[in-house]
């Protein structure tokens, strides 16, 4: 990129519409969910998505063919930072995990028939999806080579057997993308939710509660699918997973950064109105230090997210530089978001642990961000390995 090149940005009018939509339509629902400890249902999701369509902000990730805005990743991060200021914002515009990554995956690896049957309804928000990768010990977690779910080829298709857990969105999903080991390596399969060989065993009780369909234990038991259910070539699951992962990590980062920025604004407003020891809390050195540190974390996070988006748009999500940039962003932003939210709670004092003031729920919901889509420790390990491999001889 030359010094005179300006990175593409979403139009200011689109960001303004997104801000109005989030403020007027989404945040009131979010506050009701938090204060009354409600489950985020599909009826709630569909209602918000219909309002997003009416507001002209639905589907930043989806193609125009499917009613979306067809934005590049660099354009998308501008509007998703706004959408991410509410826990329900990404869901409302159909740009939240796991559907965002599965849209990328189906566009990249799906056959024309698979795109018509699965991508079209997913991208249009008609249905939700799930990806079944993570397994109970000793199966695959951060190390995908430990995959234990198997797929045995038959004359007519495949038989899948294995248990998965932390299967996000599984309760109520229309279909699963299941990763299973075959005689020729890990392979992806699309499994309809009404297949008699797949069962959502239970919904796990987790800290984060604002995910439609929750995180579930899913069992594949003699699950028969045709060869037309195979997504991509046999043995190529990890290649496709990498192509899915880089943009998904960037979207995950920008969504959670939006929540952190909102918490920061709430904290700043609080300390300017609350007096302690004869003066506003905002005038104290400790408060100003925390506010300054948060401003630094936000600016650094925005820079890393934008850089990752630019590399992915320029080189494609499977490129080594794209995966490295996405790993850098995820490793830093996950920890920065946690620091920002922790400071917001602290600056609220006792009210910070009260869910009526929202920042407590933001903190609890965000805790899993440091683990999902790659734990920080694993990302640091992979970042270091790439750096060492690039040393000149």
UniProtKB/TrEMBL annotation:
PROSITE patterns: ACYL_COA_DH_2. Homodimer. Residues 240-387 form the Acyl-CoA dehydrogenase/oxidase C-terminal domain. Keywords: FAD, Flavoprotein, Oxidoreductase. This is Acyl-CoA dehydrogenase family protein. The keyword Membrane does not apply. GO terms for biological process: fatty acid beta-oxidation using acyl-CoA dehydrogenase. It comes from Williamsia marianensis. InterPro entries: Acyl-CoA_dehydrogenase, Acyl-CoA_DH_CS, Acyl-CoA_Oxase/DH_mid-dom, Acyl-CoA_Oxase/DH_mid-dom_sf, AcylCo_DH-like_C, AcylCo_DH/oxidase_C, AcylCoA_DH/ox_N, AcylCoA_DH/ox_N_sf. GO terms for molecular function: acyl-CoA dehydrogenase activity; flavin adenine dinucleotide binding. The lineage of its organism: Bacteria, Bacillati, Actinomycetota, Actinomycetes, Mycobacteriales. GO terms for cellular component: cytoplasm. Pfam families: Acyl-CoA_dh_1, Acyl-CoA_dh_M, Acyl-CoA_dh_N. Residues 14-125 form the Acyl-CoA dehydrogenase/oxidase N-terminal domain. Belongs to the acyl-CoA dehydrogenase family. Residues 131-205 form the Acyl-CoA oxidase/dehydrogenase middle domain.
């Amino acid at each position: 990129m030359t010094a005179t090149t300006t990175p593409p940005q979403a139009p200011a009018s689109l960001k303004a519409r997104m801000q109005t939509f989030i403020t007027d339509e989404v945040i009131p629902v979010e506050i009701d969910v938090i204060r009354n400890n409600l489950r985020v249902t599909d009826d709630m999701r569909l209602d918000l998505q219909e309002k997003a369509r009416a507001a002209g902000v639905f589907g930043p990730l989806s193609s125009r063919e499917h009613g979306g805005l067809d934005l590049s990743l660099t354009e998308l991060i501008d509007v998703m930072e706004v959408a991410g200021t509410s826990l329900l914002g990404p869901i409302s515009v159909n740009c939240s995990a796991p559907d965002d990554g599965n849209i990328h995956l189906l566009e990249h690896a799906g056959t024309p028939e698979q795109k018509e049957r699965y991508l079209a309804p997913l991208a249009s928000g008609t249905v939700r999806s799930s990806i079944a990768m993570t397994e109970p010990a000793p199966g695959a977690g951060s190390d995908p080579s430990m995959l234990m779910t198997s797929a045995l080829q038959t004359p007519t298709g495949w038989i899948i057997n294995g248990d998965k857990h932390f299967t996000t969105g599984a309760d109520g999903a229309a279909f699963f993308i299941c990763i299973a080991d075959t005689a020729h390596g890990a392979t992806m399969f699309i499994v309809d939710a009404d297949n008699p060989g797949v069962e959502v065993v239970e919904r796990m009780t987790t800290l984060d509660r604002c995910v439609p369909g929750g995180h579930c234990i899913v069992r594949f038991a003699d699950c028969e699918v045709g060869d037309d259910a195979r997504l991509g070539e046999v043995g190529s699951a990890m290649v496709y997973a990498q192509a899915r992962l880089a943009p998904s990590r960037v979207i995950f980062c920008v969504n959670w950064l939006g929540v952190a920025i909102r918490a920061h604004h709430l904290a700043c407003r609080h300390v300017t109105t609350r007096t302690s020891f004869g003066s506003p809390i905002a005038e104290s050195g400790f408060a100003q230090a925390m506010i300054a540190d948060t401003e630094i974390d936000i600016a650094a996070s925005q820079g890393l997210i934008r850089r990752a988006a630019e590399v992915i748009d320029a080189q494609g999500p499977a490129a080594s530089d794209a995966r490295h940039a996405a790993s850098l962003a995820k490793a830093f932003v996950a920890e920065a978001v946690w620091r920002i939210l922790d400071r917001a709670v602290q600056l609220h004092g006792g009210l910070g642990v009260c869910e009526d003031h929202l920042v407590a729920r933001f903190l609890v919901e965000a805790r899993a961000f440091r683990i999902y889509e790659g734990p920080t420790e694993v990302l640091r390990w992979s970042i270091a390995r790439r750096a060492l491999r690039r040393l000149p001889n």
